Amino acid sequence: MSIQGTQYSSQDLFIKDSEVEQRNNIIKSILLYKVDLTLQKGTDYYGTVEIHLDLHNNNQNSDHPIQIDFGGLKVEFVKIRNLNEYGAEFRNITFSFERNRVMIDYQEFVQDLKESNNKISILISFQNQYNTTVQDRGIFSTITGENQYLHTQGEVASMHYIFPCIEQINFRAPFQLSLVHPSDWVVISNSCIIEQQSLNKVTSFSKFETTQPFPCYLYGIFAGNYVVYRDKYKEKIDLNIYCRKEKAKIIENQISELFCITKFGLNLMEEYTQIDYYMKKLDQIFCDNYNFYGMENPGCISLEGRFKFEIYFLFYSQIIKEKRYIFEEEREPLKIMRRSYIMFHEIAHMWFGDFVSLEWWNNLFLKEGFATFFGYKAVSKYYSQFDYGIHIELQKVLILIDENKDKSIFFQCLKLLLRVFKNCIKVITLSHEKLPYYEYSCYKAHNCISYNKGGMFFQFLEQKVYGEQKFQELIRQFLTENSFSKVDETSFLKHFNDIYSQKYLFKNHLSYFDDYQFKDLINLGLVEENYKSLDLSFIVVSKITKNIITAKYEDLSKYPSTDNIILLNTSENHLIFNRIKQEDLKFLDENNIIEKFNLQQRMTIWNTILFENIQFQKLEYFNDFFLQNFQYENNMVVLHYILRVYPLFSKQFTDKQEDKIINLYQEEKDLQKKRIILKNLIRYINSEKNTFNLLQIYEGQERKVKPKYLNKLKLKIKKIYEVSIQKISNLENKQ
Ligand SMILES: [Zn+2]
Questions:
Q1: Ligand 1 centroid – CA 296 distance (Å)
Q2: pTM value surpassing 0.85
Q3: 278, exposed or middle or buried, with CB in 10 Å at 0-12, 13-18, 19+?
Q4: In this predicted model, what pLDDT tens digit does every residue of 256-298 receive, in sequence order?
Q5: Looking at domain 356-506, what is its CATH homologous superfamily?
Q6: 452 Cα–ligand 1 center, Å
Q7: If you measure from the C-alpha of residue 185 to the centroid of ligand 1, how many angstroms do you get, rounded to a whole number?
């Protein structure tokens, strides 16, 4: 028998919370996924999955069916057998398959269940096709000339688009995979290949070792004409890096660096957690057409090779988004570090995310915050001379955007206009009540709050609450105690038993320091005593002597605000922002204080004006201040970051301000600085005169300007032309 799936709306197809609940009542645990796939060249694949289940024994009279999720094409048959009865054979049962659900009547196998023996195996045979359009729907296939490449992406709930499974993070199960595949394809999964043979001239069979138990969204399957580079970690762990054949020449000169980063990350995590890497190998696969930075499949991390999102409008094409981690040319320090950060982030997940996983998605920040925190930590250690930690501090302003989404007028209007957006704009705090499962699949929770604020939260606990040593000890215990198991906010709070975790975890928004006082955007419930116990530091600029010193909270009373500018040092690992008065900013500007500021002090200023712009008021004066002072920023990573981020939140630049920034570019002597300014100029320029000026500058470049910048510029020029033509025709009409 075979049943064909029907098309429904995506929300209707998605697993419902009530169904999750129901399954939790029936299934005690999943003992194994045994998956056999035949991967063919072209468009189709097929296979069987055997799911071993241990059921609760209070369901004997249940009339709820057992639901298996499957977003594929066809189900050929469903069979079951009792697992404890030695030699018991599979027998056919009736089932239904619609709306991505394979439903089996509970009474179909109740006869197999005994009091003390509730273990059954369900065998499902199915057919499916590769996906070529939607990023996280099944086995994604791309073809380049003769070569074909397959990759998968399981998070949040995409494994059931690959094979029938129980798509829930709260079940951990071992994965046993076998593949029949074209002989010229490389096949990769979480574990090592333990058996491989040719079936005929063109087809091979590969069997992978059974993995430790993981939630099924962490299973990874990759196949195709990938090329491989090999190395070893501590002489026992195989390290493999895969990329497309077409990319081999490009990646070759980066490969030793990539292995170096990998070993550094593994070693740091092993030393920090005192838990050895628990897989026999670590593969990293650069996938093209992959719209994720990376995915932490244990033993086979996927990384983005190249992703290009382009829209076409008549004869004009605009590249909206283009990212690649296989660098085709020399890149700026920010890009190089960003790539290493992603690699470190995914490696950190091997310990938290995989080795220890989540009970449910509402605690996403636990794994993402942890991996973000460690990604940053590793980058700062790896590139010690660059002080990446400071650049990370700048990123915390991004949290504000997500936290204020529901408050902004733009989103309020959008909400009114588009009823479909009704539920889309929602502030999701670090830890929250469960949302409908569907909302996690829309990546709404994968935002700057889970990642950046989550990361800052861990950093805050380390730097301000516990200190490095005690924090490391707590993390080590937390991971060890929960090895190959699940955690949630209750277990976290039991372990990290401090007032800051309690408060920051469950409330929206950050607190800020304004005119000698701590204020909360929404009352966080922290009192002055709480702040006193944190190791906060302040920058004090004397308005009389113009000296700059640092002070502790308890010493601030020595510095009256009439004679001093007090800035909370916001680039020191905490979750509190600083506000600044315009007259204080003017004082710093007019007295060239920024010139004397060290990196941390400059960072505080950049953070402060960005915070002010996002949260409070966009004053034109901020633009002047920014233009006047960004030339003093000599850390390339920070310069790159502020030039990229600042205009997103500022008032539009006036013509005069535009002239100024073009001048600054022309007068700059440092070539790298010049290049970073040039790349970002397009974001600042809107006037007719300067848009043409910029085109001239681009044309005069020895280094070719990337198409993405040229395209943006062309679009602006096109708009200017259209406006001019409109003006002329209006004029003609009048005459
Ligand atoms: Zn992550």
A1: 7
A2: yes
A3: middle
A4: 999 999 999 999 999 999 999 999 999 999 998 887 889 999 9
A5: Neutral Protease Domain 2 (1.10.390.10)
A6: 11
A7: 29
